[in-house]
What does this fold into?
Amino acid sequence: MANTSDIKNGLCINHNGKLAQIIEFQHVKPGKGPAFVRTKMRQIESGKVLDFTFSAGHKIEIVRIENREYQYLYKEGDSFVFMNQKDFEQVNIPATMVDKQDFLEEGMVCNILFHAEEELPLVLELPMHIISEVTYTEPGIKGDTATNTMKPATIATGAEIRVPLFIDTGEVIKIDTRTGVYVERVKK
It folds into this structure.
């Protein structure tokens, strides 16, 4: 068991029976009264951000987590199958753990956060940006780049996003997977 003096950014702890990762912390030693540690942490399962204050010397349970790269292979029922590229071990990730499923593309390399002692997958993170081809959109108008008007488009993964008017079917674009927003056109 560790105590509050071991707290650092990125540390994963067991807090009230749930895993939480420290985002930021501050040791406070007021002029009057005992010292304490003010923390901001994110619950791993739900993604909620919590503020919590520990008294100095409070015992905490540190949990070892590992971030590993896995390649997406295919969808099987209501789960997704990923493969470790180093040892070719496969792992099934439930669909409920995958945000933005419509951006997943076969062969895509994703990060999976694992509980190291239990070998349990906790969080799946898509790459920050993906490059995909526009499979369908209404015809564009040449030279219409002055306005910020957007139109709907479907990309190769099946996701629907909004793109500028000058983007046509068959063009390759870069998309931010966190927000689902068009970033730029990619030259072939």
Summary: The mean pLDDT is 88. The chain is about 0% helix and 55% strand. The two ends are 54 Å apart (CA to CA).
